[in-house]
């Protein structure tokens, strides 16, 4: 091959690699914080997420739990690499698929660890950098990707929402919006207006939620009075719930347990998609399968005291 042609091939390879390099990031160093958990999803393409860190949720419900995960989702969760695997470029991909018979499959994973909580007088920080499924409009109806946390008492007692739930990021129907929500108390109604929860939402700036990687962060801060729960999008604060907004018994329920575990999933259909679409059943015949949520990293830190 002529030398000029060799350099053309090399340059082309570099240019093709640039989007991948920009899309990937290392778990950030956090001076003053202690790293207690992280996964940057390095590994061979097609490999499942680290079984020492993550467990799979399978089927349509927890054993003995409500059908369709209690939210009328239509997908069946699997551990099939087609639904959940590493891409070989430092990312995890969770991909909803529709089979020839019309059945939707996807994946949901949760950390084995369920003791994530702030130290006395300190702060807990849970974070993920990810990109939503790259689909919008009619083709996105029913997509419901999420990064969230459940109280460990849910594993022991199976009582929701008393166990507490921090929705760090939810997106639905391919919209350029993300929601951060607290679920607590009793259902229906209760101090968190269940099943709605107490929430807030924000738009992804710059590239949309579907077209670029964004960082989603949740903090539980015990170093301030009153204690606070905070939601951030790309480092920008967009939601705060303080202890004084809830009855003391409710705050104790969600904060007095050993800790929380993290979850990542892409559901299809369900109550949230139904509500946001104005009462349409989703997914529809126009919904396109095969668009993954791509996760760059997940990390948890704690800090003792104020900065």
Automatic annotation (TrEMBL):
Record Pfam families: GH16_XgeA (PF26113)
Ranges where the GH16 domain occurs: 20-306
Coiled coil: none
GO biological process per UniProt: carbohydrate metabolic process
Listed GO MF terms: hydrolase activity, hydrolyzing O-glycosyl compounds
Family: Belongs to the glycosyl hydrolase 16 family.
PANTHER family: GLYCOSIDE HYDROLASE FAMILY 16 PROTEIN, GLYCOSYL HYDROLASE-RELATED
Protein name listed in UniProt: GH16 domain-containing protein
């Amino acid at each position: 091959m002529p030398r000029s042609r060799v350099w053309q091939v090399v340059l082309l390879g570099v240019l093709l690699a640039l989007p991948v390099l920009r899309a990937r990031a290392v778990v950030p160093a956090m001076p003053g914080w202690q790293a207690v958990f992280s996964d940057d999803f390095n590994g061979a393409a097609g490999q499942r997420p680290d079984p020492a860190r993550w467990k799979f949720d399978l089927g349509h419900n927890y054993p003995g739990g409500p059908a369709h995960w209690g939210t009328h989702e239509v997908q069946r969760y699997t551990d099939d690499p087609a639904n959940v695997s590493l891409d070989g470029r430092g990312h995890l991909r969770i991909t909803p698929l529709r089979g020839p018979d019309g059945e939707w499959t996807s994946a949901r994973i949760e950390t084995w660890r369920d003791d994530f909580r702030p130290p006395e007088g300190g702060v807990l920080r849970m974070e993920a950098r990810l990109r939503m499924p790259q689909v919008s409009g009619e083709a996105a109806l029913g997509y419901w990707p999420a990064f969230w946390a459940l109280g460990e008492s849910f594993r022991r007692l199976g009582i929701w929402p008393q166990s507490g739930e921090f929705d760090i990021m939810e997106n639905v129907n391919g919209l350029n919006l993300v929601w951060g929500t607290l679920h607590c108390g009793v259902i229906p109604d209760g101090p968190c207006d269940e099943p709605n929860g107490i929430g807030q939402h924000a738009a992804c700036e710059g590239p949309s939620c579907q077209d670029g990687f964004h960082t989603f962060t949740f903090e539980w801060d015990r170093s301030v009075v009153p204690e606070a729960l905070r939601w951030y999008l790309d480092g920008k604060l967009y939601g705060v719930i303080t202890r004084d907004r809830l009855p003391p018994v409710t705050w104790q329920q969600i904060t007095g347990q050993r800790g929380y575990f993290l979850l990542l999933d892409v559901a299809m259909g369900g109550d949230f998609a139904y509500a946001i679409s104005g009462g349409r059943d989703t997914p529809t015949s126009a919904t396109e399968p095969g668009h993954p949520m791509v996760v760059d990293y997940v990390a948890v830190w704690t800090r003792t005291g104020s900065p």
